[in-house]
Amino acid sequence: MRNNAPSKHVRIVLADDHDLVRSGIKALLSMIEGVEVIAEARDGNELIALVDDLDPDIVMTDISMPGMDGIAAIAEIHARKPGTRMLVLSMYDTVDFVKRAVASGACGYLMKDAPPFELEQAVRSVMATGSYFSPAIAQRLLQPSEPTVDDELTNRQVEILKLIAQGRASKEIAYQLGLSPKTVDVHRARIMERLRLNDIASLTLYAVRKGLIKP
């Protein structure tokens, strides 16, 4: 990697639920002069807690994680600490994912299969200009896109859809979200109506395609 020292020491909190992936990214980041991974998280809730405690310069996070996912965590961190730069490092390259991440507060988006030098380029760019989008992502953003999940569903409906797609029953969802089973059933019916889908299998496929759950 290039050895151009940044103007300040860059402190990064890294989030990914796969230990090997996270270790590999951390190793690459440690090769960049002036950059330090100060903490690691396996899910969105842990990430938020670390950011609250450590106030890093950059949050680098995956999107699909158990519990609270990266998009929800980005939105929460942005609300609490709007000055924190957040860079998504993901395997998903659809316009839907990128737009959802940016709308939630992300300032950059990098693919996991990017060459190692691009990781340094992303960190430098985010610190210097406040944003970075890999060439492949930038090109996709210029293409017409289908409606995002946030265009089609409310936040509560997205939350319930994710749990339905994970195989949770109405009673389980109701207990977790503090709702009545009847309310959950009403939401499920409205979700199906909005998406024009008729069964749980179709809802699950939709959730996978939109990156709400892992395949």
TrEMBL record:
Signal peptide (UniProt feature, chain positions): none
Modified residues (4-aspartylphosphate): 62
A single MF term (Gene Ontology): DNA binding
Pfam families: GerE (PF00196), Response_reg (PF00072)
HTH luxR-type domain ranges (all copies): 146-211
UniProt entry keywords in alphabetical sequence: DNA-binding, Phosphoprotein
InterPro entries referenced in this protein's UniProt entry, alphabetically: CheY-like_superfamily, NreC/VraR/RcsB-like_REC, Sig_transdc_resp-reg_C-effctor, Sig_transdc_resp-reg_receiver, Tscrpt_reg_LuxR_C, WalR-like
Domain Response regulatory intervals: 11-127
Any one biological process term the GO annotation gives: phosphorelay signal transduction system
Protein name stated in the entry: Response regulator transcription factor
Native organism taxonomy: Bacteria, Pseudomonadati, Pseudomonadota, Betaproteobacteria, Burkholderiales
